[in-house]
Amino acid sequence: MGYLVGVTLLWAFSFSLIGVYLAGQVDAYFAVLTRVALALLVFLPWLLRYPIKAGLALQLAALGAVQLGLMYLFYYQSFLLLSVPQVLVFTIFTPVYITLLYDVLAGRFQPRFLLAAAMAVVAAAIMRDGMPAPDYWLGFLVVQGANLCFAAGQVGYKRLMQQGEAPASLQYQQFGWFYVGALLVALPAWFILGTAQYPVNATQWAVLLWLGLVASGGGYYWWNKGASLVSSGTLAVMNNALIPAGLLVNLLIWNRSANLWSLALGSVILLASLWLCRPARQE
């Protein structure tokens, strides 16, 4: 649980950094490629030093291609269509996707976790932002594409860890293949669809370095490690904990407007849904 809380705080800044310094200013495909390549560099020493079975490497690469590569392609495009708070709020359906996907793969149905996920959606909806933009519905669909990719990657990684093919104590040695898969998506996407819109100042480069080395390089490893240690219900709910955290960062640092009463009420419901998922055990 500590891993998920820590990464939530870390990623809370990412939404605003992308929306303020990169969206519409730096080519989205170049930003994705840079972020993935930098994250791979973080794990490259272990990737080269500790060889693993080809089957396991392919599974990790496939998960990275979906959870990080494809998700980022949707995610960065959404900032061209929506405001930062709207992007945050449109992630509200991720908990439901996680709960349903996990239960389908496990051959079961957990109504308690689905209820918790639904409560998390309601909580996030209460914290929704303002009037729709002209590209509102297109932006909504793009964010849902990102949500589905992120949910599928988390569920897939959790299931892979439960199968025991990748010992939990050695996750850091194997995780580089996750970024290899993401790079195999990001590189051709940038080559085919990218434009010559590169960072023009030190601030934009610094943001990309932070997002690549820390938010992606460390963040996705810690998040997936945390996902493998908690129940599917807790994982689902924690996906929406990022919403109030991101909105608060957007409000406090960049002085963007937010309804504090809605934010507080939504946060209380979110905490209640997290409580419903106790205890955080392997499921």
UniProtKB/TrEMBL annotation:
SUPFAM superfamilies the record matches: Multidrug resistance efflux transporter EmrE (SSF103481)
Transmembrane segments: 29-48, 55-75, 87-106, 113-131, 137-157, 177-196, 202-223, 235-254, 260-277
Name of the featured protein: Drug/metabolite transporter superfamily permease
Organism: Alishewanella jeotgali KCTC 22429
Matches recorded under InterPro entries: EmrE-like (IPR037185)
UniProt keyword annotations, A-Z: Membrane, Transmembrane, Transmembrane helix
Top-level lineage group: Bacteria
Keyword hit for Transmembrane helix: yes
